[in-house]
Amino acid sequence: MKRFLFAARLAAPSLVALLPLLLICSPSRAEEPSGEVIGVEVHGSEVTITYNLRGEPDEEYEVRVFLISRKRPDVSRELQLVSGHVGTGKFAGKVRRILWNMKEFADIQEGEPFVFRIVVDTAGTPWYYWVGGGALAGGIATYLIVKGKPAGTSMTPVVVPNPLPPAR
User: Fold this and answer.
1) CB neighbours of 157 closer than 8 A, spacing ≥ 6?
2) What is the pLDDT of residue 18?
3) What are the E-state strand segments in the chain?
4) Which of 28, 94, 96, 133 is the most exposed place for a label (fewest CB within 10 A)?
5) Angle, alpha carbons 38-41-42 (nearest 5°)
């Protein structure tokens, strides 16, 4: 019981000191990044999708475009033959353009109603996940070192004799 209280006395100040650090380092974004389609132009088999991306200008974002049928809104397909402000990059701002070749989906009927959806995610792993993971690993290591052996057990070394050589 004394060992547990000793470990608790060590862990409590560590956690209390770590809490303000986690609060200060937590992300303080007022809003999540989002993309809004503001226009679509069709020129033959080329489609130009214009959108606005709300987010921090110096952040990198992962921008993807999906084609959704109005007849079947539960079915969506991600566009692959795209260029422009798509993929990973610093795309925050207004009037961003994506060019898409409609030949990618040959099964689209002419005149079929569909819409585009822009999906925006932050690129990479945020730094505070690495800090939190390191703090967690350090806390676990401290606990394992401080906890020691369970009460009532002894650390008696066991001597294992060497095997005898084969008889001749």
Assistant:
1) none
2) 52
3) 34-43, 46-54, 61-69, 76-78, 82-84, 87-89, 93-101, 114-122
4) 28
5) 150
Three-state SS at 107: coil
Distance from C-alpha of 70 to C-alpha of 53, rounded to nearest angstrom: 23
Total number of residues shown for the chain: 168
How many Å apart are CA 116 and CA 129, to the nearest integer?
A: 32
pLDDT per position as a tens digit, 70-108: 887 777 889 898 999 999 988 889 999 999 988 888 777
Specify which residues 77 forms β-bridges with. 67
| 22's tokens | 């986690």
For residue 116, which phi and psi values (nearest 5 degrees)?
Answer: -110, 145
